[in-house]
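Technical note accompanying the year-one report. For the benefit of new consortium partners, we illustrate the data format agreed upon in the data management plan: each record pairs a sequence with a structure-token string. No post-processing was applied to the example shown here.
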Amino acid sequence: MAVHVYGDDTANSPKAAPHFSRKHSYHSHLRNMFLERDSVSPTPASTPSSASPKPLVYHVTSYGADPTGKADSTDAILAAISDALKGPANGFLMQGIVNLGGARVDLDGGNYLISRPIQFPLAGRGNLVIHGGSLTASDDFPDNGYLIDLSPASNNGSGYNYEFVTLRDLFLDSNFRGGGIQVINSLRTNIDNCYITHFNTQGIQVQGGHETYIRYSYLGQHITAGGDPGERNFSGTAIALSGNDNSITDVVIFSAATGILISGQANTLSGVHCYNKATSFGGTGIYLKTPGLTQTRIVNSYLDFTGIVAEDPVQLTISSSFFLGDAYILFKSINGVVNGVNIVDNMFSGSDNGIDIVQLEQSNSPFNQIDQVVIDRNNVKGMKLKATVARGSVQGNGSSWTTDFNSVLVFPDLIKQVQYTFITNGSSFPVHALRNVSGNKVVIQSDVAVPASVHVIADQGGGFLLKLIKEIVFFGSCL
């Protein structure tokens, strides 16, 4: 078997020419160089010694991998990765992580059949790239396996298994035999420009570690562009994050029962397009299974006929996103907690079926610990607006004015703050006051009957009106 290697041997490069005195002119120096070249007979190139540095590019075809996908290439690809992991060290990254200096395992644009996971044989390595080809699971590939598995066969006892491993420009076909990529307890992993399909478990699973960045990738159990006749039968999860400080950016999920499942904190989703399985078929675009401490930001994303579920959300932001096809946000109560939640500046579009844009699931327990929740400034077309800040007006001639906010406010029987404006055109100067806020109804009463208009702002989260009052006070102090 011929193994082709690529690299530069700088250790055996010719020595630099001796330094010439400034007294010699440039032309004299150049003439002497030509004379020396003509007077010395050429010598054969020296054979690299066995001590020459090993290459940093490992081509799997040089190890016998079949780029046509006809023969099993598992052993050949594992041999290339094993050599890369045993390659020359360039110091360390995190403690216990050997820096491989940017070594690359090149799939040479081939399509390779594999019968078992490409699992790293060694832990404690970093600064490695695997790129440029396709992997397809064989018909006897393990059902619980992953095509690429960053969980070491043997552990070195380090705090992290790997650091700065990049998986780039890959097409992964799981052949409905397991998952695509698994990353276990690793640091600063990049999954970039990958297409992962035909998984029956997870397209990408991340457990432990942190700072896994998934970018510019496409994931789907079935290859479709929407409206698939088999959509109600889609299963599996496209991306499962069970770790902290991860990021998913500019990713499309086009088929799976669950698009993204998050069970760790401090994760960011941006530019994500989920049309994996419609909510009406039982699908979920993004599921936040982090009750009591969510710390997740979802921004500039597109929920396409599938929505977001958040269990007991604490510190959650959903903003500048688009919800199409009656897609909505659902708060699921585990212990009845909602705290530090901002759902603002989103667009919702539906089919005029009266679907609320934010809904509550309280079968376990009612939400009774609600604070710092702002659901506001969202626009709606063909759906029912819900918010924690509601505005209403009522006119009449009498001594009592009632504004009912039940059609707008998210939480039942909860109003924490009220601001109202009382306007009367009569000659009298009545005394008026806020009398009741129970049942999400605000009651204003006056001591005498007068014709009046009453404008009311009711806040369930407790933060909006405080901010508004501070702004009014600040503006007044500037006058």
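Partners are asked to follow this layout when depositing records. The chain is about 10% helix and 45% strand.
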